[in-house]
Write a structure and sequence with these properties.
- 2 copies of one chain form a homodimer.
- With 209 residues, chain A is α+β, with helices and mostly antiparallel strands.
- The first copy, chain A, contains 9 helices and 7 strands; from the N terminus they run H-H-H-H-E-E-H-H-H-E-E-E-E-H-E-H.
- Chain A has a 5-stranded mixed β-sheet with strand order 5-4-3-6-7. A two-stranded antiparallel sheet of chain A has the order 1-2.
- In chain A, strand 3 and strand 4 form a beta hairpin.
- The longest helix of chain A is centred in the middle third of the chain and has 16 residues.
- Chains A and B meet through helix 1, helix 2 and helix 6 of A and helix 1, helix 2 and helix 6 of B.
- The structure holds a DNA duplex (20 and 20 nucleotides).
Chain lengths: 209, 209
DNA sequence: CGGAATCCTCTTCGATACTG
DNA sequence: CAGTATCGAAGAGGATTCCG
């Protein structure tokens, strides 16, 4: 176990559990669903095997992660978030919403992992219940996801108000800069506008060091 | 600078900025307002002077913190959050909301820092706009704070629907366990109930290691 | 006195190699 | 596949010293 901050404070306590290096990225991976040790290791380049093992053990002790063996024949070990661990989804989404403002757009040829769009939509629209009747479908590169009545789902939308087609940089500029120049919209442009406004990510930062 | 995760991901990027040990606790302190170096050092026991200096430098580079000199005669240096740094408030509050579930109540004689109540109310009621007309005043130990129309403020409330008097453990049990046994309420008990429900912290965890 | 830079020890990280 | 063992490099923590 890492060293505790030794303060009676919910924030310090939370960081005692998930504040060590790699911990929240392990959680990020498990938010995609149960994963095996080697899946995690593969998706976290730079994380030593011993460090990953230590983090998983710590997270399990703290009730964030549950480790269990799959039923035979595929009798391998998988890790998954507990109900308490699922509670970190909001934390991670808020962190993503904050981080995106100083991240900058992806390079046009940046390799994004499959499923990124659905997670991005989830984080962007986290907590937004003020776009109740808006339905928008996003087609970004090879990914398709949609936002409908406050819920994000993979794949095409049913009778969307609008369809947004773009590439990852265009998607970034749409939500971070409110820039509609790099997206192609068919249908109700205002529906997209409402979604972007509701996301309320805040202005981007000039490049930092 | 610490070592980067080297991933194009808003979460990894955010953690590159504030994921190092002590960084988010520095931010927590600055959320109380501008602070001098020695104030921060005093409030972060266990944090070495070199580590604190390094974190502040990193946070300044990243546009999270702004450092400036107070006008004479008190020509000392103060650190404060930038607009971008203020954006971490939601992250920190979500972390607190998550952490509180496994923290357990404070010891009856636990020394809490002045001003804790107002921060606790802020985190607990973060994002809760579904209690528009509720006004509750809290008197917890030496601290007084109030919640009124979605806004938290220090001191007594103007014509509150209810006044809650208790000690810190009672305050904890009220919001985390929904336990009204350890609080004394004058006025509209349901107003307090609505606030507790809206907080929606989730169930507490059994003691973890 | 406030705000660090330096020095030194100890722990943790990250990479590789190895084992049930 | 799922880790443990090992080891050099980097970072944390504590005390002291230096600077304005």
């Amino acid at each position: 176990m890492g060293r505790s901050y030794q303060q009676y404070c919910p924030i310090a306590h939370a960081l005692d559990i998930v504040g060590e290096r790699w911990s929240l990225l392990v959680v990020r991976e498990l938010m995609r669903g149960p994963q095996r040790y080697s899946d995690l290791h593969e998706r976290l380049p730079g994380c030593g095997t011993n460090v990953l093992a230590a983090r998983l053990k710590r997270l399990e002790e703290a009730g964030v992660v549950h480790r269990h063996r799959l039923p035979p024949p595929a009798a391998s070990m998988v890790y998954e978030l507990t109900e308490y661990g699922e509670g970190l989804r909001r934390v991670v989404h808020e962190l993503a919403r904050w981080g995106i403002r100083s991240l900058g757009p992806p390079a046009p040829d940046e390799a994004l992992h499959p499923g990124w769009l659905i997670e991005a939509l989830g984080a962007i629209t986290e907590l937004q219940s003020d776009t109740p009747d808006t339905r928008v479908e996003f087609r970004v590169g090879a990914e398709v996801g949609s936002f409908s009545a406050g819920v994000v789902s993979q794949g095409a939308a049913d009778e969307p108000d609008a369809i947004v087609s773009t590439d990852p940089p265009g998607f970034y500029h749409l939500f971070v800069n409110g820039d509609f120049e790099q997206v192609e919209i068919t249908g109700d442009r205002d529906a997209v506008g409402r979604l972007v406004s509701a996301a309320a990510l805040g202005p981007p930062l000039a490049l930092h060091v």
